[in-house]
Design goal:
The termini are far apart. The protein has six helices and eight strands, in the order βαββαβαβαβαββα. By secondary structure, the chain is an alpha/beta fold. The mean pLDDT is 88. α5 links the parallel β6 and β7.
């Protein structure tokens, strides 16, 4: 039996009572995402650039990321957030952005090409996946976007629940935290 993360392996053993040996092999990432990697190309800017990529669904925590961004901006930091993704939460995220006057600080792109995604990995300073476990147990297994970000030399902040700890080494390659704690999230 093969699992994509230690988190998923634990579920198989504890919830489904699997007794067979389980090997953890993280999900592969297509090499087209890594063409012409040159982390030296990163641009320096007065504005700290944050990137978040994923399907716009509850478990990805984009709503918590936006609440945290508002706190950061209220502290007078110069920050720009780019979100790449589409999904059922898009309209509510756009509404939150508008209601909180975040329009000039957040860009959302849907249906982005691999070339555009690569350009964003190169142009941004930090990758954030504010993932969390929903009440029904829905959560991330081993998110490929964290692997992609790491390949471009980007430190990451990710939710501590689910399989992100198989991808982010806490306090080494990034930070794992509870994205619901917006003040702690903003501090990090």
């Amino acid at each position: 039996i093969v699992s994509v993360s230690n988190f998923a392996k634990k579920i198989l053993k504890e919830k489904l009572n699997v007794v067979s040996e389980i090997t953890v092999i993280p999900t592969p990432v297509h090499n087209s995402k890594f063409s012409n990697i040159n982390i030296e190309e990163k641009k320096t800017s007065e504005v700290f650039r944050i990137l978040s990529v994923g399907r716009l669904i509850k478990r990805k925590g984009f709503d918590h990321l936006l609440k945290t961004l508002k706190i950061i901006l209220d502290r007078d930091y110069k920050v720009k957030l780019t979100i790449i993704g589409s999904g059922p939460e898009k309209d509510s995220l756009i509404k939150f952005i508008s209601q909180n006057s975040l329009d000039q600080f957040v860009d959302i792109f849907s249906d982005a090409s691999d070339e555009f995604l690569v350009s964003q990995y190169k142009a941004n300073d930090l990758f954030v996946l504010a993932n969390l476990m929903l009440e029904n147990g829905d959560c991330e297994g081993a998110p490929n976007v964290l692997i992609e970000a790491a390949a471009y030399g980007m430190p990451s902040i990710a939710g501590e629940e689910g399989g992100t700890s198989d991808v982010v080494d806490h306090n080494n390659t990034g930070i794992l935290l509870d994205p619901r704690d917006n003040n702690n999230f903003a501090n990090k």
